Amino acid sequence: MLELAVAGERAFCIDPIERDLPGPGYSLHVIRALRKRHPQAQFCFIIGADNLSDMENWYRPADIVAEIPIVAGARPGYSAERPTWTGSRAVEFVSTDLTDVSSSEIRRRVQSGADRDELSAWVPESVADYIIREGLYR
After folding, report:
1. What is the DSSP letter of 136?
2. Cβ proximity of 87 and 65 under 8 Å
3. Which pLDDT value is given to residue 58?
4. Which of 48, 49, 108, 118 has the greatest count of CB atoms below 10 A from its CB?
5. Residue ranges per domain, the chain?
6. CA distance 26 to 63
7. Per CATH, is 16-98 categorized as 3.40.309.10?
8. What is the pLDDT of residues 76-134, one digit of tens each?
9. 3-class secondary-structure state, position 91
């Protein structure tokens, strides 16, 4: 789906590292694999503030913040304060073009019966087609 979303965008490339890892694709495992593959690189974990608010329920979130800096994009209706579960690790909040569209909201709307035309307002048409064709988020 990501390949469809960035098709034709020269500024992006997709690394299949998560797909190639054994077992569930937990963010912590992907981060560790990337750091092992590219030991000289400096990575940061970019996330929307909406997902940051739920990150403490992820697989080993404290290990994620210990491994890599967190950069959170502002989202309407979500706090720009460091969650207490991150301990002393800083979370950098950055300004973004605020929109009311998030992956969580797209999934919720698909579950509520959004059609292709409605989805195409939030995602590229190729992604909307894929979501409908594959029956995702139903």
Report:
1. T
2. yes
3. 94
4. 49
5. 16-98, 101-138
6. 12
7. no
8. 777 778 888 887 777 888 887 766 677 888 999 999 999 999 999 989 999 999 999 99
9. strand
